[in-house]
Amino acid sequence: MLNFGGLVQNEWLKMSKKRSFMIAFAVMLIAIVGITFLIWKLSVVESPDLVIEEQFKSVLDFTASMMSATGLGMVITIISIIFTAGIVAKEHQLGTIKFLLIRAHGRNKILASKYVAALLFVSSIIVFSLVVSFISGGFAFGFDTSTGQETWSGVAESVWYQSVYTFIYVTLTFMVSILTRSSGATIGIGMAAVLIEGPLQMLLSRYDFSKYLLFMNTNLSQFSESGSNGGIAFPSLVCAAYAALFLIIGFVAFKKRDI
């Protein structure tokens, strides 16, 4: 376990030394502050009677909306995909993966440490976005959490649904990076999967088999709000099954393929 922790720490240190690491946080900071300013200016300064003001009556309303998959969720997911794409693929392109494999660690342990490091990055970017959203929303709409429709549990639900949404696509990206060994192709495939999710839902929702497709189940918030399919239990199982499948394919391919 100590050896595995050291591998994860090593992967985290390699990630944190990249310029793209801080750029990811800077993009989220600029995006959240910029959106907050635009919403505040439109709803409070220029047109105080807009329905926007009714939607965001408190900082919790604003934070929950920003952290949802329909808010900044796609931005968080795309940033995570771009960052995850190079964790394995870049090692192959630069040839540094060979130096890892000659050490006294199994391939599964090395790959698992990279996946855990990717999840830690996703978790950090989500927590960072949550904190920035709350602070910027507080300055725009006040820090009184007793007003508005949302509660802390509602914010926690939004964060949880967003985390599941991002983790699923990061796991898909992780598998693709192992199979293609190309960061460019991995980013393209990962971003395409996110962007075609909406059109596929509209095209396939009429068919019964669509409930077993990944793209129909990634956004758990829609099941929580509508109460369809018995709540979030079934889509959660579908997402877990696909995540397990992606990991199995990735680990088997990494273990059997010549480096």
What's the quick description here?
By secondary structure, this protein is mainly α. It has 12 helices and no strands. The chain has helices spanning 2-16, 19-46, 51-55, 59-66, 69-94, 97-101, 107-141, 152-180, 183-195, 197-204, 221-226, 233-256.
Description of the structure:
With 259 residues, the protein is mostly helical. The protein is 78% helix and 0% strand. It has one domain (2-256). The chain is built from 12 helices and no strands.
- Provide the number of structural domains: 1
The beta-strand count equals 0
Q: Name the poorly predicted regions.
A: none
Number of helices: 12
Which bin fits the share of residues in helices? over 70%
Order of helices and strands, N to C? HHHHHHHHHHHH
Distance between the termini: 25 Å
**Which outline best applies?**
globular
Largest sheet: none
The Cα radius of gyration reads 20 Å
Strand residue percentage: under 5%
Task: Quote the average pLDDT.
Answer: 84
Helix/sheet category? mainly alpha
List the main descriptive attributes of the protein structure presented here.
single chain, mainly alpha, about 260 residues, 12 helices
Write the layout of secondary structure elements.
Layout (H helix, E strand, L loop, with lengths): L1 H15 L2 H28 L4 H5 L3 H8 L2 H26 L2 H5 L5 H35 L10 H29 L2 H13 L1 H8 L16 H6 L6 H24 L3
Helix pairs in contact: 1-7, 2-5, 2-7, 4-7, 4-8, 5-7, 5-8, 5-9, 7-8, 8-9, 8-12
